Amino acid sequence: MEKITTTTLASNQEKRNREKLFDLYQKNPLPGEEVTSNSALFLKRQELSKILFFNELYQQIQSIHGIIIEFGCRWGQNLITLNNLRAIYEPYNYNRKILGFDTFEGFKNTDVKDGVDSIIKEGSLGVTGNYEVYLEQLLQVHENECPLSHIEKNKLIKGDAPISLKKYLEDNPQALIAFAWFDFDLYKPTLDCLNLIKPYLTKGAVLGFDELNDPKFPGETLALREFADLNSLKIQRNKFSGMQSYVVMD
């Protein structure tokens, strides 16, 4: 398998423990048809905390009309989580489309404002080749478990997100955005997409961020600072972990 550049805060002991968990996953004795039904056996605290966070955010936007966008969806676990939350909280809201933007090739066109950490380079945090094809199949399988599955409610958009987003908004002038999740990690695409979606945000819409106040990825914070006066924003953190945060537009 091709090597993918990633980053982690895990200690050596935690890394060894995760290797053991992965080994146990690969060697699990469960019958094949029961593996996905018992996926929580291999769900770490960190991943569960993010699911709980998205659950909290989804409840906040439930009464807000509009679509959901993830900027930087990578492997797509957040998209799957959001799809399933939609099925739980508003199973017949076929208007709540979920879009995922990504290059599916890792970082592109990094900026000096993105800092000097070794992870800030072309191609970092990429995925395996043609992964978006596999992810589209996964999304469809999950959507098939939901009501009104014959109506397409999930969409992946591959490419340079600011360019792709501009075209999407031009093609869909009716769009309202209820929730936008930013996980680009980088300055320029974050700022460009914030500026593009601004006219489509209504009062009560939520902007979520994966790396605000993160010394490894200063670009995301700098982009938000250029987009809005931080003194006017109430930036609330994920109470289940130390990183993710969100802003409710008012």
Automatic annotation (TrEMBL):
It comes from the Bacteria. Gene3D superfamilies: Vaccinia Virus protein VP39. InterPro entries: SAM-dependent_MTases_sf, TylF_MeTrfase. This is Macrocin-O-methyltransferase (TylF). The lineage of its organism: Bacteria, Pseudomonadati, Bacteroidota, Flavobacteriia, Flavobacteriales.
